[in-house]
Amino acid sequence: MEKHKGLDAIVVGGGPAGSCLAGTLASLGLKVLVLEGKKFPRDHIGESLLAMSMPYLKELGIIPKLEAEGFPKKTGAVFVWGKSKKKLDLFMNSSSPGYAYQVIRSRFDEMLLEHARELGANVIFDCWAREPILNENGRIIGLRIQMNDGNNQEIYAKYVIDASGLAQFLPKKLKLPIHIDGHKRIALTSYFEGAQRLESPHENNIISEVSKDGWLWYIPLNDKLTSVGFVGDAIDITTDPNEMLRSQICSTSLVKEKLGNSTLIRDVKLLKYTNHIVDAPLWKDGYVLIGDTAIFVDPLFSTGVHGAIYSASLAASALASVISGEITEQEAAEWYQDHVQRHYLRVNHTVKMLYRIHPGKSRFWSTRNSFDIGEEDAEQIVSSLGVSGLTFFINTYRDGVLELPPAIVKLIDEFVLPSNEIQEIKEEEILVLNSEMEKVYRPIIYKKKLVPGLTIQHKRNRTLSVEMSLQSSHYKIISSIDGTKSAKEIYELIEEDMSEMERNKFYVYLGSLKQLGVLHEYKNTFSCV
After folding, report:
1. Domain of 486: which CATH number?
2. Rounded distance, CA 155 to CA 338, Å?
3. What value does the CA radius of gyration of the chain take, rounded to a whole number of Å?
4. Prediction pTM value
5. pLDDT per residue over 400-433, tens digit each?
6. Which residues, 6+ apart, have CB-to-CB distance to 235 below 8 Å?
7. Which of 164, 217, 384, 482 could connect to 13 by a Cys-Cys bridge, CB 3.0–4.6 Å?
8. Looking at residue 111, which CATH number applies to its domain?
9. How far apart are CA 4 and CA 125, in angstroms?
10. Does residue 18 sit in the same domain as residue 115?
11. What domain count does the chain have?
12. CB 193 within 8 Å of CB 262
């Protein structure tokens, strides 16, 4: 067997998770090898990206290539849901840059992997990971791999990153426990030509609509091609996939209308999956699990690719800092575990909430919808969702479009929703940290690295959290707020240390924190008995 050494990381899998991690590490000067068993391009579902993924793709440097490729831009999503089945428009205005792309995954994934190669990552195709190599302490130090020509090799690295997706290479080899949430699921995937579009300027937006036994997605991929799929439970697939998809489409209104006289151009494919999270450390003993290998959640909110990119970005930043000695492996592993788990819970609760509030008589819906939840369950749900997950439900409830369980309705007035209106701060105003907020010293990502930082978060997750490096001007500002100094005094105290932060930006920053409920105006009140 041939042996290779000197690698910082071996990445198993060249999908979005693996290619984004490899590209980021390579851009930081690390030596990375990606092992991909298939030839690219290859088919995949999950064509609808999210605006929240765009900053990560921008930092990776691939946005100009996506623009040049001509992928259609989407500005939001349309949901046909709830008792009334009204059309709900969900816009991306609050998420910079306010749009995302609908992509043909075979091309998108190929572009990401090629971009990683351009950044310096080495990629080997037709190569399959077979066994992890462990040292005497049980730490993974490499892989035994097999080429399609039968040639076997041993490859060594400081870390092995599992981005093998639903194949879950390392969880299966290491017999890691996996928590399965809910029923075994299926997705029926298909492509149509000649389907209609929504009215401009929303013609590229995704449609998600309830059907008799689940729901359907409708994704415009270009002027001619539309991806249409059905998501349901495996137990309900009692007919041929083509017939099952047809019957589900016929039970809808908007999707059925838009398909009109379109033509199905490929037999329907059936994919099986589960909602899951690895119930073990995602980073331990020389390995890191990212993307679908670590977690997978129902695709209702198109979070699959984002979860891959997000976890890859977290892992890459943490690995770079550990390898350079700037942070300990234990700190990085705990930080990564916490962020990925919270992402999983937030997305999972968001999906379950939308299922919960749609009435239906079929087996699929009758086993999911429920308004009868207690105060304790409601608190757990809204705390997991937080502002980022609950905003959609609060807005549609207040607009009278969707209903919410009464126990949750009682809690929604406590939330501070995102707003473009920043509160004005007067120079003489004295500020103090909201008593519901807490300071947590933990690492944050700064310039693609994991560095010591401070997070200010609500004790019950009622507003957005604020992160800052301990070396930043923002940290100096926050550290000076103690309920005794005016805004002007704080500015004068740290002015010389504020770098390029101008006076106006200083007050805007304080105003944004006040608008979020992080800061309050200090008032010295007393009472006489």
Report:
1. 3.90.930
2. 30
3. 25
4. 0.94
5. 888 999 999 999 999 998 887 888 999 999 999 9
6. 183, 184, 363
7. 164
8. 3.50.50.60
9. 17
10. yes
11. 2
12. yes
